[in-house]
Specification:
By secondary structure, the protein is an alpha/beta fold. About 30% of the residues lie in helices and about 25% in strands. Pfam families: NYN.
């Protein structure tokens, strides 16, 4: 496409926790993910102008890997070196709760037995994503607004961006099309595309980067048999054609 007919612009909004649970959990070789390379690869027909990444800062918990927070911090430092990416940090809240057993067990009075549990909840990410999406849509910062999630809690802001603000919204799913949220698909996005494991493998950050604080290294636990940074770079320069597009 020449200068007289430029690509439409796209702003991308990534639900980091949902992306992790749907595609990255259990696949450490893909966790060192270059979000800009990924967006350029799955949206080759757009000029990706910005990526907003929404996540929550994890804490070391009893019985869990104590080095997980350090790996997350290394990744966030790496993402911060990308020029088009902005990180929005929420938090995890841990509260004691009294909840019924599953499956239900009745006590002597016929009431469901309850136990005290430690409940972990992500706080702030969904609200932050919805707010950023709607503010950007009101300002008209891009031609299309791409939401990467499978969380139906984001149905309302996607509808508002389209129906109230007249903006085009795309759905980028970390799920197979048949397993993607029906509620999200029913918001009427202009298209629905899927992120695949092949996309993740082709879009890894270099094993080492630098920022103002020094060298950032890919965590050893995230090493794998993925492409080398040089091979990934070639893939990113020649993105696949805009396939993987599904009717909303």
């Amino acid at each position: 496409m020449d200068d007289a007919d430029p690509k439409p612009t796209a702003s991308v909004y990534v639900d980091g926790f949902n992306l992790y649970r749907r595609l990255l959990e259990g696949h450490p070789q893909h966790k060192w993910l270059d979000l800009e390379a990924l967006a350029d690869r799955v949206l080759p027909d757009y000029q990706v102008s910005s990526i907003s990444y929404f996540t929550a800062i994890i804490k070391a918990l009893p019985g869990k890997d104590p080095s997980s927070p350090q790996r997350q911090q290394a990744y966030l430092r790496a993402l911060a070196t990308l020029p088009r990416t902005e990180i929005y940090r929420g938090k995890f809240r841990i509260d004691p709760r009294v909840m019924p057993l599953h499956p239900t067990v009745l006590d002597a009075d016929g009431e469901p037995k309850r136990v005290k549990v430690k409940k972990t909840e992500e706080k702030g990410s969904d609200v932050a994503l919805a707010s950023r999406l709607l503010i950007d849509a009101m300002k008209g910062v891009a031609d299309v607004y791409v939401v990467c999630t499978n969380d139906s809690d984001l149905v309302m802001p996607m509808r508002l961006a389209q129906e109230e603000l007249g903006r085009q919204v795309g759905l980028l799913s970390p799920m197979e099309p048949k397993r993607a949220s029906n509620e999200l698909k029913q918001t009427g996005p202009i298209w629905h595309r899927q992120i695949t494991p092949e996309d993740l493998a082709a879009c890894q950050l270099p094993d080492q980067l630098k920022d103002a604080r020094g060298t950032i290294r890919r965590p050893e636990k995230w090493a794998g048999n993925s492409e080398s940074p040089a091979e990934a770079g070639l893939s990113n320069q020649e993105p696949k054609p805009p396939g993987g597009v599904y009717a909303p």
